[in-house]
Amino acid sequence: MDLSTALHRSGGVARSAALSETGVRRADIERALRTGAVIRPRRGWLALAEADPELIGAARYSVVLSCVTQARRLGLWVLEEPLRHVAARTPTSRAEAEGCVIHWGAPTVPRAPWTLEDPLENLLGYAAACLSYEAARAVWESALNKRLITLDRLRSLPYRGRARRLAFETSPFSDSGLETLVLSRLRWLRVRVIPQAWVHGHRVDFLIGERLILQIDGRDHVGRRRTSDNRHDSSLALNGYYVIRVGYEQVVDDWPAVQHEVMTAIAQGRHLVRRTCASGGVRSSG
Description:
Elements: H1 3-9, E1 13-15, H2 16-21, H3 26-35, E2 38-39, E3 45-48, H4 53-61, E4 63-65, H5 67-73, E5 84-88, E6 100-103, H6 120-130, H7 133-145, H8 151-156, H9 161-169, H10 177-186, E7 193-199, E8 202-208, E9 212-217, H11 223-238, E10 242-247, H12 248-253, H13 255-267, E11 274-276, E12 282-284
Parallel strand pairs: 5-6, 9-10
Antiparallel strand pairs: 1-3, 2-3, 4-5, 7-8, 8-9, 11-12
Organism: Leucobacter weissii
Domain DUF559: 190-266
InterPro entries: DUF559 (IPR007569)
């Protein structure tokens, strides 16, 4: 097998020994190094010059991409994190990845000594210990929602502490991490909160009580999707529902204002069915 093909099959970065096992000749490696088509991040490793910089960095510093960094790479929902998160290959290794958060704990699932990306089970365990409860729960529920793992699998693993708690409290029903954050923050209300409720032919993010609806817009909520949701909001209002719609920045950066709006709506009885009295007045049930 030629060097370029072998490296592409390994994600652009591979151990020199593994390449030799596939039949790559040493002369081809030396030629590629001279031309700059291939680089040597660290002794024993080779990479295509255009390979993923995060994988090259992991090989260079002998660490494993993990926690929120690997969660992002898998397409999971994560809050913004300016630093890369990596795991030391072993609890006693001397990882020195510059500008990174390094996790030293033993992995939940044993990893091969040459791997550069942590398995999902491990990154979830590190996230549980590293992040706040609600931020970690958002990552866990994103993995469940994308069907990358099952609840049975999570609950069968030897997690401890917060990770063990998350294994028994998470669910696959939140469509985004924002919904996970919101549900966690509304659980204290003495009002029924139903996520992903089906109302008038559409799913809504949260049905609070009988008539109060809270909709959460992600950062990509534009164009036809916004037009469709606005039309649905109008339909809900015409059918007696009260709709509150908030965006990413409001949930993440200004939650007290969102909470105040929800609490005000509940105080005004917006979550209750409003029935007409015999005298012609209007009263709320409950």
